[in-house]
Write a structure and sequence with these properties.
11 helices, 2-enoyl-CoA Hydratase, Chain A, domain 1, Biotin-independent malonate decarboxylase subunit gamma, alpha/beta, single chain, 241 residues, 22% strand, nine-stranded mixed sheet
Length: 241
């Protein structure tokens, strides 16, 4: 798949062979589609965009409009972002608050009974991924997607850990390593999708959409996050003791 902003069109065509009315407004995507004769709502981003305050608000507004006007309608989030926009203007306006607002809107949709499925089809980095894809009931990715919390050279500069050491750690520990398979091992991704069966995979994802958050348990089962589930269980047990 190429790097152009039109990548979403081929993805949408594969996901929704019965047709869609998704529109692109800059790097923001919104609209609806038909899936097995039933409507689903679609929102997301394209072109590896950085999410600034405008796109964060646009996505939040789209989700709230779906909740208000189409109660219970499934929502598909198309994720392609290089993370939050690193500009002084966005930082001064409080980009963290806008991202938190977006995450809360997606959480509201889930609590109101909307099945929210995210698909990483391009890039997924840092806060732009956390506030969208990781807020869905379940997140999936195409095999060719680029997913990481932070590039290892940047991680090395911030943590002062030598790059060679981080590369060594990444070979055995998925927490340090980029790529869909490592995020699947950690439970962040439910599964990795392959073309051309995306329509069938989306249909199954909505059918099997979890109502509870099983990512920590999946990470433990897959050997990617060995302690998170046990710590969560211990905290829950202690609260009820």
């Amino acid at each position: 798949m190429g790097d152009g902003a039109d990548n979403w069109r081929s993805v949408a065509a594969s996901l929704f062979p019965q047709g869609h009315s998704i529109e692109q407004h800059g790097a923001f995507l919104t609209g609806s589609a038909q899936l097995n004769g039933k409507p689903v709502a679609v929102a997301g981003t394209c072109g590896h965009t950085a999410i600034g305050v405008e796109i964060a608000l646009a996505q939040a507004r789209a989700v709230l409009d779906i909740v208000r006007h189409h109660p219970g309608r499934p929502i598909v989030l198309l994720v392609d972002t290089q993370g939050q926009r690193l500009r002084r203007r966005d930082e001064m306006l409080g980009i963290h608050s806008y991202m938190a607002h977006l995450a809360q809107c997606i959480d509201l949709a889930r609590r109101r009974g909307h099945k929210v499925i995210a698909l990483v089809y391009g890039q997924a980095l840092s806060g732009g991924f956390v506030a969208t894809g990781l807020m869905a009931n379940a997140c999936y990715a195409l095999q060719e997607a680029a997913i990481r919390v932070m590039a290892l050279p940047a991680m090395s500069r911030i943590t002062k850990v030598p790059l060679a050491r981080l590369e060594q750690l990444a070979a055995d520990h998925p927490v340090f390593a980029p790529g869909p398979e490592n995020f699947r091992r950690m439970g962040g991704l439910t599964a990795i999708w392959e073309r051309p069966a995306m329509h069938a995979q989306l249909t199954m994802a909505l059918h099997d959409c979890p109502q509870q958050d099983f990512r920590a348990a999946q990470g433990a089962q897959r050997g990617g996050r060995k302690l998170a589930a046990a710590i969560i269980d211990a905290i829950v047990e202690n609260r009820h003791a």
